[in-house]
Every structure is written in structure tokens, then in C-alpha cells.
Amino acid sequence: QVQLVESGGGLVQAGGSLRLSCAASTLTISKNAMGWFRQPLGKEREFVAAMTWSGLRAEYADSVKGRFTISRDNAKGTVYLQMHSLNPEDTAVYYCVAGSNIARFISGYEYWGQGTQVTVSS
User: Fold this and answer.
1) CA-CA distances (angstroms) from residue 5 to 34, 41, 53, 85, 88?
2) Could you tell me if 35 and 70 are in contact, meaning their C-beta atoms sit under 8 angstroms apart?
3) What does each C-alpha distance from 113 to 20, 22, 46, 85, 122 come to in angstroms?
4) How far, in Å, are 28, 82, 87, 102 from residue 93 at the CA level?
5) Residue 52: which of 33, 29, 24, 36 has the closest Cα?
6) CB-based contacts of 12: which residues, under 8 Å, 6+ apart?
7) pLDDT digit string (tens) for 6-61?
């Protein structure tokens, strides 16, 4: 069973930056697409970004394109989400995901982390 553990969340002022990390319990995750979803309080979980196992292709939600960058280090079994120009609408619990293929929908991912809170103050 693969476990994903997120870190790097916290409180930041609008316009600031944060970097989320997600470490997998096994390096076999390097053969999986990995990504991030987020869920604002009281709202539905939504796709943020994802990357193929090779790292050659990434997809982003329109709301974060140009501000967030996903990357991965397969040797460490880790995926990152660098977030810049944060605004209060980015406040959410951010979840790391892994699955067979890159996808923008929840059911596309078999493995989920517990989530890390990101709060952006105005």
C-alpha cells in the first residue's frame, strides 16, 4: 500500500509563496502520474496540477496556471508544488495524489495523501 505524506503548508500573506512537498512510501511511485488537488472549506475538491511519471508533461487548472509549478524527483519518490502570487482564493486543504495516468478528475487517482492546509491571508 502506497502512502503519500504532504508537507509545507501553512499561513502566508497574499502575494507570497509556498512550496508543498509530497513524499511517497515507496519508490515504485516513480512509475505513477502524481499531482495535487485542493478543497476549500465548504467547497468541492478540485484539480490543481498533475505530472506524468516521466515528468515530460504537466497539466494545470486554469486558476493556477502561470503561478504554480509542479515538479518531481523520482529518485526520492517526491512531488512538489511551488506556489507563487498566492491569493485568498487559494486557501484550501491541498492533497497529493498518485495514479496510473495523468487526469483532472478525482477518480483518476488511486492514492491520496491526508492533506496539508494552506491559508492565504488578505
Assistant:
1) 13, 21, 18, 24, 24
2) yes
3) 12, 8, 15, 25, 28
4) 26, 15, 14, 21
5) 33
6) 18, 86, 118, 119, 120, 121
7) 999 999 999 999 999 999 988 777 778 999 999 999 999 999 999 998 999 999 99
